[in-house]
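Protocol step 4 of 6: structure prediction from sequence.
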Amino acid sequence: MLIARSLAELRESCARLRQDAGALALVPTMGALHAGHRALVRAGVASGAATVASIFVNPLQFAANEDLSRYPRDEGGDLAALQEEGCALAWVPDLATMYPVGEATTVSVTGPAERWEADARPGHFRGVATVCAKLFGQVRPDRAYFGEKDWQQLQVMKRMVADLLLPLEIVGVETVRETDGLAMSSRNRFLTPQERTLAPALQQTLRSVAERLRGGDAVSVVLTDAAASLAGQGFELNYLALVDGPTLVPIEAATAQARLIAAMRLGTVRLLDNIGV
């Protein structure tokens, strides 16, 4: 596996890989890789493209009340994991490379970037869109892979690429879960043993909600019941909603594109999850 730490190294390596493989796939990450990230890399490799994974903890997507320094980092472990999955190139830029002094442009997103995570984490999607636009320009991939766990982020990326006519495809990969159903996340390591035992209740509740909705129960009643149940178990609700999958607009009935989305805080850890209805 090649490792690039400068733009010159990246461009040289990408040109060589494109010549050999014919196409490039990109997996943007902030490191602290787990099985979910590995699944994204495997999807890129399986497509036949030379797969590039970036490792960059992006300060622009952290809200003012979030601790950037607390985000887990393990570059050595991350590089070893990427190599095991057949990644062709790891792109590991520093802050000065991604955000040079004097730059004056960020990417503003609305539509699916409104509500939910945008309300909970002001400026978050501006940071995500800006860093991903930079990565797309640096690597010039044919496809970029994102996990469905961050459903709103996936829709924001699809919308941005379509609106800006960027020459790549955004590919969503199904959420990877622990054996008890908890969606994998780099932040799960901060759960206490007691919290880790409780955490799968979020996904179990979403499945119960989906079943009731398919049975015809009223959306408002089902969501209210579920929120109360989770609060009674120790979860602090950020949001629990039924939305149109592509647009993230709230809806009042289960449709073919309906998605249940949720964000809860359990102790110091914020858990995200979603399922189709």
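Step 5 (inspection) to follow. Residues 10 and 18 are 12 Å apart (CA to CA).
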